[in-house]
Amino acid sequence: MDLIKQRLPYLREHPFVRSVASLQVGSFFTNFLQAAAGVVIARLLQPQLFGVYSIAFSLAGLATILLGSGIQDAIVSILGKAYGQRNKDEISQAFAFLLKMSFITAAVSLVVVFFLPSIAQRFYGQAQIGFFAGIVVLASIVSSFFFSFSQIALQITGKIKQMTTLLVADVTIRYLFSVLLVFVGMGVVGAMSGHLLGAAIICVVALLIWEWARKSDELLPSLRNLVIQGKRVSLKKYFGFSFWVAVDKNIASLYFILPVVLSGIYIATTEVTFFKLAFGFVNLAMSLLGPISVLLNAEFPKMQVQENIKMKKNFIKVSLYAMALSTLLTLGTIIVAPVVFKIIYGINFSPGAKYVYGFLVYGIFYGIGVGLGPMWRAINRVKTSIIINLVTLGVGVPLGLYLTKLYGIWGAIIAVTLWFTVSHLYSFFYLITYLNKRQSVTPLSD
């Protein structure tokens, strides 16, 4: 306790901690909104239709894997270093590259939309699940443009409070429309359409925010210059680095998407609902750690420019603090789960509460992973991360299917726990060993 008292004044004044705190306030609010909206949608749809809703959302996640934050995370890493060096030309080129890649990935995702009903019919016997997923894909395409650009611009320029406001507004508007459309009787299609309508509104808001941010910081390019450079910029300039970061990020996203998608193959949609709610309830608490990872994505590259020697120490410190916090959060979710499921979700969903207990080990070791992605990108060892995750999923997916088929929901929980725990622990100790061997690293070296 004495040590904690001594450290508190330092932590309160530390710029990074203050940024994390600001983003965590917003994260807590958005998580609360998502949870509240999820409760209302679940109650309105009931277990059967909510299971369809959950599978469709996860299928959409697979379809939009190219639109995920992989390339965006890579560009944040590049922009973090360029902004630290006050390199206006590099910043402009990086944003232009992101614009061009956004158009390419959006076109590919549109093609995938046409195949979703057939895929859903093949695996779930319900083509309409693919139709519902397609609506979410369209919403993701809209969100991949100005919303992402404005978010990144606010992050690298240190406007964390404004970035937090934008994130909160996005979640609020999307889920507000989703709940409203379900409430008026549009069912699952209404829940999905709300995200598309909300994404369109936020896209316009984000465009206005970009212009405001540009006028307040001369290092950011104008929209006109961004479009012009987007036509001219060579994909080769950042493709090597951003491609591997995107692959790594999207493979990591599969850890969250695949459990629900695969469980729907062997267990009924009602049981998928219970698994989805238990998994989501634990991840709701874990999302409070998200702001740390988001900020580290820009901070580690800056740290290499300014104070490279301290990077290993800070990496270990952040990872252990996050692990301690994830342990406390997991224990908290386990304690309140029976009450939350019975009172908030309703008696029809109360059987799902017992599955929260199964995620204890998952939650404990979840926190140690918050700094892994940013560190892999900062030291340009993303390919190693890809290998680790591919091996984990290569073994884990068949094992997960087998365990789910054999033990139902409990098998899926065991599989998810093994995926995350093995990958996180191996990656963490690999990075410590690697950083011990190198006193100096170059973020974007070949």
TrEMBL record:
Entry membrane topology: Multi-pass membrane protein
InterPro entries listed in its UniProt record: Poly_Biosynth_Transport (IPR050833)
Keywords: Cell membrane, Membrane, Transmembrane, Transmembrane helix
Name of the protein in question: Polysaccharide biosynthesis protein C-terminal domain-containing protein
Protein's cellular compartments: Cell membrane
Keyword Ubl conjugation: no
A Pfam family the protein falls into: Polysacc_synt_3
Keyword Transmembrane helix carried by entry: yes
Regions crossing the membrane: 21-45, 51-76, 97-117, 129-154, 195-213, 241-268, 274-297, 318-344, 356-374, 386-403, 409-432
Main localization of the protein described in the UniProt heading: membrane
Organism from which the protein derives: Candidatus Yanofskybacteria bacterium RIFCSPHIGHO2_12_FULL_45_19b
